[in-house]
Design brief:
single chain, 310 residues, alpha+beta, Helicase, Ruva Protein, domain 3, Tetrahydropterin Synthase, Chain A, four-stranded antiparallel sheet, three-stranded antiparallel sheet, 13 helices, elongated
Amino acid sequence: MTTITAAAVKELRDKTGAGMMDCKAALNGTNGDMDAAVDWLRAKGLAKAAKKAGRAAAEGLIGAAADADSAVLVEVNSETDFVARNEQFQAIVANVAKVALGTNGTVEAVRAAPYPGSGRTVEQEIANAVAAIGENMSLRRSVKLSSPGGIVAVYVHSQVAPNLGRIGVLVALKSTGDRTKLAQIGRQVAMHIAAANPLSLRPDELDKDTVARERGVFAEQARASGKPDAIIEKMVDGRMRKFYAEVVLLEQAFVHEPDISVSAAVKRAEAEVGAPISVEGFRVLKIGEGVEKTETDFAAEVAAAAGTKG
């Protein structure tokens, strides 16, 4: 039996972009023949997937799944919004979300988890689907939120199918009261989050650099007034309170009823729930957030494909 060296595996991986274990299997299956191994990977769609991997996948879907006291969001990207409307792609995202619910929620754990009914991992199944659907796809992000003894409310915005859409929100709440009523206020808060984009649950949870930067800007603005330092400090404190009201969830104006804050809305809901309510945390995923899309010259692409100059 031919001995497969690490150098050979690396060479094949560099040529095709396929995964290390797939490259090793290809070399084993072809007795170490490099060209045959490339064809082996191409036949299984793995090399084809690698060729597409350089293209920006900034579209796709957010998938959600939940059980009694925890929930997950996954972001599976594609290159075009057209693929997000593909039923095969939607089924993959829905299944990945269900798989993620049984893990600790990290991307690494979800990628390595078995994909139902395929004999492959989630990562392998997505790579396999790239060849079938014809676009680069990837599991980019995954988050999980748990609230033992409480609930995790889920809201998916711009849904194309149940629990599949462009924005996903999880909100954890704890209360000993009516769980159905608790879920109702939880969903309202989740909808608020999708619309209002809070940065943190409470002021002390804001990124310290963000707070320092805002405070510095406000201080410069206040000093321009020429007022004494003691007054300037009060001016800055007042502007910071307004800043917190804009970016901190519990202090934001409730989008369903802007005359009250989110914390006031939750407090009021305690009467219907029948017990105190604590908002424990939230998570948000928006499709393609932070992905740098590459702008292309369509005319140049057509000319290149036709073998002509633009």
